[in-house]
Amino acid sequence: MNTPVVRVVDLWKEYRENGQAVTQALRGANLEVAPGEVVALFGKSGSGKTTLLNLLAGLDRPTRGTVEINGRCLEQLGEAGRTELRRSRLGFIFQFFNLLPTLTAYENVFLALELAGRIQPQAARDALERVGLKGKEHRYPHELSGGEQQRVAVARAIVKEPSLILADEPTGNLDTATGDQILQLITERCRQGGTSLLMVTHTPLACRYADRILKMVDGVVTEDEKCR
Ligand SMILES: Nc1ncnc2c1ncn2[C@@H]1O[C@H](COP(=O)(O)OP(=O)(O)OP(=O)(O)O)[C@@H](O)[C@H]1O
Ligand SMILES: [Mg+2]
């Protein structure tokens, strides 16, 4: 069997304040995502979805349990190794787009490549074309609609041809029709590139786009349904 892109075993996360355990955000979560698999993650507010994504990205560290990305244990990689993995192998798409406001669409995408050690202007232009933004490369984020800004964020994620894209409510700040277009775009681009996707979403249409639906309940991931 292929090595899973994501392997999470018995993952716990406690947020502490003044040394006191205040919140147990993850309580023994388990998860595997196969290469090229598109997974939607549902769950109530506060159930631990963003906490899980942050741990997968190596942006925060678990209280206990293990996270492996492409078969490599994040804890063993160390801080520098996690940063390198994030820059070269992972893509991110957020609810509020998180583009740099002083950079154009093209520069936002190119910067992601540059941080991955790849100076490839044509790849940045191609990625923008693949998300339907040809001709708008030199606009600043404030000169683009919300849907267009999220397209830039999708281009920024796919341009690295990452093995995994993590998306946290990527349509949460868009109207339904625009959100559907963005969902379709993200999933289509991931399938085309063989990229795995783990996406937090509340859309009832998730089955239309995902291979598998998971649900986060009180810090534990449960299997919801298979869509295909
Ligand atoms: N930095 C933090 N410090 C303390 N507690 C936190 C921190 N981040 C999250 N929490 C708590 O951990 C729990 C899980 O939060 P998390 O953000 O993972 O939920 P979520 O499922 O993403 O919710 P939402 O759907 O509202 O985004 C919540 O009780 C939250 O208050
Ligand atoms: Mg969240």
Outline of the structure:
This protein is α/β, with parallel strands linked by helices and 228 residues long.
Layout of strands and helices, then pairs:
Blueprint: E1 6-17, E2 20-33, E3 38-43, H1 49-56, E4 64-69, E5 72-73, H2 74-89, E6 90-93, H3 105-115, H4 121-130, H5 146-158, E7 164-168, H6 176-193, E8 196-200, H7 206-209, E9 212-217, E10 220-226
Parallel strand pairs: 3-8, 3-9, 6-7, 7-8
Antiparallel strand pairs: 1-2, 1-4, 4-5, 9-10
Helix pairs in contact: 3-4, 3-5, 4-5, 5-6
The chain binds adenosine-5'-triphosphate and magnesium ion.
Describe the model.
With 228 residues, the protein is an alpha/beta fold. The protein has a single domain, classed as P-loop containing nucleotide triphosphate hydrolases (Rossmann fold), CATH 3.40.50.300. Helices cover 35% and strands 29% of the residues. It has seven helices and ten strands. The protein has helices at residues 49-56, 74-89, 105-115, 121-130, 146-158, 176-193, 206-209; strands at 6-17, 20-33, 38-43, 64-69, 72-73, 90-93, 164-168, 196-200, 212-217, 220-226. The strands form two sheets. A six-stranded mixed beta sheet has the order 6-7-8-3-9-10. α3 (105-115) packs across α4, α4 packs across α5 (146-158) and α5 (146-158) packs parallel to α6 (176-193). It is globular and about 50 Å long. It starts with 5 loop residues before the first strand and ends with a strand. The model has no long low-confidence stretch (mean pLDDT 94). The structure holds adenosine-5'-triphosphate and magnesium ion. Residues 15, 23, 25, 43, 45-51 line the site of adenosine-5'-triphosphate.
